[in-house]
Write a structure and sequence with these properties.
The chain is α+β, with helices and mostly antiparallel strands and about 180 residues long. It has helices spanning about 5, 20-30, 35-45, 90-95, 115-120, 170-175, and strands at about 10-15, 50-55, 55-70, 70-80, 105-110, 125-130, 140-145. A seven-stranded mixed beta sheet has the order 1-2-3-4-5-7-6, with helices on both faces. The structure holds coenzyme A (COA).
Length: about 180
Amino acid sequence: MGLIEREFKLKVERARFHHLAALIEINKAVAPKWHRNKLLRASLKEKRAFIAFMGRIPAGFLVWTKDFYSHHFIDLVLVHPQMRRKGVAQELLKAVESICPGNKLFSSTNRNNIAMQKVFQGAGFIKSGIITHLDKGNPELIFYKKVPPRIAAPKPRPRPRPKRKRAPRKNRRSKRK
Ligand SMILES: CC(C)(COP(=O)(O)OP(=O)(O)OC[C@H]1O[C@@H](n2cnc3c(N)ncnc32)[C@H](O)[C@@H]1OP(=O)(O)O)[C@@H](O)C(=O)NCCC(=O)NCCS
């Protein structure tokens, strides 16, 4: 991989406490009036967040819970406005899928959030219901995906043991003496 390619390589990892400032900055850039510092701190403490980097630059994050009828639920996906349409949200969804193989994964977004609905559709989610009366006139659409089970890597075939050469009979006898 070339130097420039490496600089822009998209990677996702578990968010840790030292990422808090980056999460807050992305949150502020996406929704300046809508700070969720408490939620972000809690998600980091409980290891329920992923952060995406474009090279070394924080690009977006995802917070999940296991509170939705005991199923995994993606609570929040935020991508910095300057990092959009580069597959960041898709990669964050893949990261959360990797922690719940074979399980049901839920999420939601407002009816007017076409971008997020497209992201869900692209990632294989289907509509699962609707919740009204959360935001006035803008119902919450529930999305669902049955995450495929992790395919076990094929076990390596045992190598045939090399046959040990036996010492000629004479020598063996002579050793016993
Ligand atoms: C919605 C959001 C998370 C998408 O993030 P993103 O990193 O730009 O999305 P991706 O690049 O992974 O997009 C994957 C696909 O989704 C679709 N998509 C994404 N954004 C879209 C948009 N604005 N309009 C139409 N389709 C869109 C496209 O099909 C896209 O693939 P393509 O770029 O190859 O055509 C981002 O716009 C965002 O942070 N919005 C504000 C916060 C928000 O609404 N969060 C979701 C609810 S919590």
